[in-house]
Amino acid sequence: METLPDLPEEILFNIFSRLPAKSIGKCRCLSKQWLNLLSTKQFIKSHLARVKQENLILTTPSHTIRSVDTIKGYDRGTVSRELAVAGRWIASFGSCDGLLLLLNNARDLFLVNPITLEQVKIPNSPVAFNLYGGDTIYGFGYDSVRDDYKVVKVCYHAKQSRVGIFDTFVAMYAYYTKKGFWERLESPPYDYTCPLIPSGAYVNGAYHWVGAWSRDLDCNVIAAFDFANEVFSEILPPSGVDIEDLLHFTIGVLGGCLCVIDAINDTEGLDVWIMKEYGVTDSWSKFSLAVGEYHFGDLFKPLCFIGDREEGEVVLVIEGTRLVAYNLKEGTSMDVVVDRVPGKFVDGCTFMESLVSPVTLCGHREEQASV
C-alpha cells in the first residue's frame, strides 16, 4: 500500500481548502494527520471563505429532502438525490454557512449539514403565544460579534377584545448554539410580522421580514434584525412598490442579495426586485415574468441564479408546486423538471457546501430526529 505524501501542513492546508466539501470528507478518512488538520476551526473557516457553489434543496410531499446541484447549469431533466437525513421534513427556513434550519412533522427544529449529514435538534422554545395560537416565523444566521450561530423566533398573536378591537402581542426569542438555550429579546417595534405565507430572508448579517409599525397599522415596512448587534432597522422597498397588501408580497434571498416578489393583482405576473447593493434604495433592480393564473395564498419564492447574473437564468418556486427558470436576457420562462421529484413539492432553499458541524457548534448536545 502506498504511503501518503509527507507534505508540510501549510501546503496541505492550501490544497485541501480548494477542494469540495465532499472530497475533504473522504480525505479525512485516509490518515489521522489529515483528519486533525481538516477538522480544525481555522481550516473549516478558510474552506468556507472559498466556497462559491450553490446547491438547491427541495422538500417534497413525502417529507424527504432532495439536493440539486445548480452550479454547472442544468438540462430540463435535472438530477436530484435524496439526502440520508433521518426525519420527516415539512419546511425549510433558509441556510447560513452550509447549515439548514429545518422543521419536521413533529414541529421540531433541526440544524442540518446536508453534506456531512450531521443534525442537531434545537430545544423547544418558550411557549409564550403558542398556548393561544397565532403566527410564528423563524430565521437562522451568524452572529459575528459572538462568533456564534443563532436561531430567532418571532411570535405574533392577535386576540379580539369585547369591543371588537384586536389586542396584539409580539415576542422575539433567540437560541444561541454556544449557550444551548433560548433567551427573550427586546420585542420588535412592529405589531404585525407575519403575512399569510410567512417569509423572511437572512442577508448581510440581518434577518428581514414584513412588519407594521404599532403606531400605524396601515404602514408596513421591511424590518431588519441585526444578528450581531441585536437591533432593529428598516429597509426601504423599491420605489412605487406597495407592501401594504401582504397577500401578494414575499421576501427572499437571490444570489446573496435581498429580494422581494410582488405578485401583481389581476395581471397573472410577478415583479421580482433585487437589491444589488445592500441598504442602497437606488440599487433595486426589477424583472417581470408571466406565470399564468394563480390562486389566493400561492407561494412565490426566489431560489438561485444559473449562469451570469445579468443575462443568465433565475430559478423560482411558483405556487409552491413548480420550479420555473426565467431567462433574464430573452425574457422567457420555462418549467424545470427535477428527476425523482414529484410534480408538486413543498418548498426549497439554497445552501453552500461546507464542513461546519452543527454537532460541534452545539457542544455535542445532539438529538436524533424522529423518523
From TrEMBL:
InterPro entries: F-box-assoc_dom_typ1, F-box-assoc_interact_dom, F-box-like_dom_sf, F-box_dom, SCF_F-box_component. Pfam families: F-box (PF00646), FBA_1 (PF07734). It comes from the Eukaryota. Residues 1-47 form the F-box domain. NCBIfam families: F_box_assoc_1. This is F-box domain-containing protein. It comes from Castilleja foliolosa.
